């Protein structure tokens, strides 16, 4: 289980008459998705690729608006407020097996997928399912847990009645915007009361949409934009970020980009991590 984690003149010489030594740069592999800042231009972007051009290595960075720019690999970059020297990522002919899954669990190499349990985890939509699969997919296959789409929470009570949960056939439900006083919280409470004790668990995160469960730093943001009530949230987010937002295909492309930025549980907010881990424990108990 993961726990919500999840003198006035700074340039003047010191008392010995010496200035503070400058910070030294450390080498940092330019792995795809790494967000850095070019010191000279102030350009902030995620590494898209490293390639050779004109006999030297260059790195292509993509900013949060989808624009790309090419820089010479080497010194002159900042990472998390520290100077770094970007170097080509290490290429291995035979990659070492990961010792941890994306969720942080101990990896079980070559483990066959377990026959599916009767218990299920339900999520509200396709994006929720894809995010759970990317981070917890390996764990769920080993445990034999199937994640199914609920397509919204309005019909949760009916879905639970049809499923007929028992002590050996449980349902764990992940809900968006599960906060006190919300419609979602009222529906969740009614469903749990109506089901046999200990057979249904409804948990959720406080965000309007699961997109917000991805740490904004992964996209070069300091925080997700705030969208006014009455505005379709995803389209509003795309417009605030300067991304195309006219068609449903624009939303799909934006989500694909957000999902690519997620490498492991460390790129998600603790408020989602703990809830998913709890649901997995519930349906595998």
Task: Describe, in plain words, how this protein is organized in 3D.
The protein is an alpha/beta fold and 285 residues long. Helix content is 26%, strand content 20%. The chain has helices at residues 126-143, 156-163, 183-194, 233-241, 248-260, 270-284, and strands spanning 26-29, 35-38, 44-53, 56-62, 68-72, 77-79, 82-87, 120-123, 146-149, 171-175, 200-204. A 7-stranded mixed sheet has the order 1-7-6-2-3-4-5, with no helix packed on it. A 4-stranded parallel sheet has the order 9-8-10-11, sandwiched between helices. Strand 3 and strand 4 (56-62) form a beta hairpin. It is globular. Residues 5-18 have low confidence and may be disordered.
Strand order of the largest sheet: 1-7-6-2-3-4-5
- Overall shape: it is globular
Q: Report the span from N to C terminus.
A: 14 Å
What's the total count of β strands?
11
Using only C-alpha atoms, the radius of gyration works out to 23 Å
The percent range for helix content is 25-40%
Offer a few descriptive terms:
6 helices; alpha/beta; 20% strand; seven-stranded mixed beta sheet; 26% helix; 11 strands; 285 residues; four-stranded parallel beta sheet
């Amino acid at each position: 289980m993961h726990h919500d984690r999840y003198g006035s003149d700074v340039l003047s010489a010191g008392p010995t008459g010496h200035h503070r030594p400058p910070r030294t740069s450390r080498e940092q592999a330019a792995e795809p998705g790494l967000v850095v800042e070019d010191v000279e231009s102030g350009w902030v972007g995620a590494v898209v690729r490293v390639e050779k051009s004109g006999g030297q290595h260059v790195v292509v960075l993509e900013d949060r608006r989808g624009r790309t720019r090419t820089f010479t690999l080497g010194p002159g970059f900042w990472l998390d407020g520290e100077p770094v020297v970007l170097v080509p990522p290490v290429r291995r002919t035979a990659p070492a097996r990961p010792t941890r899954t994306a969720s942080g669990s101990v990896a079980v190499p070559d483990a066959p997928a377990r026959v599916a349990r009767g218990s299920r985890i339900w999520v509200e939509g396709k994006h929720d399912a894809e995010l759970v699969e990317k981070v917890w997919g390996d764990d769920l296959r080993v445990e034999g847990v199937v994640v199914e789409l609920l397509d919204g929470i309005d019909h949760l009570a009916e879905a639970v009645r049809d499923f007929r949960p028992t002590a050996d056939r449980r349902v764990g439900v992940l809900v968006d915007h599960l906060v006190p006083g919300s419609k979602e919280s009222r529906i969740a409470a009614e469903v749990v009361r109506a089901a046999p004790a200990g057979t249904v668990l409804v948990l959720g995160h406080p965000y309007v949409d699961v997109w917000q469960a991805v740490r904004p730093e992964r996209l070069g943001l300091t925080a997700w934009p705030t969208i006014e009530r009455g505005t379709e949230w995803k389209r509003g987010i795309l417009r605030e970020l300067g991304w195309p937002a006219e068609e449903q295909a624009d939303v799909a492309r934006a989500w694909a980009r957000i999902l690519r930025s997620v490498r492991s549980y460390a790129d998600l907010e603790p408020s989602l991590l703990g809830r998913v881990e709890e649901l997995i424990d519930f349906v595998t108990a």
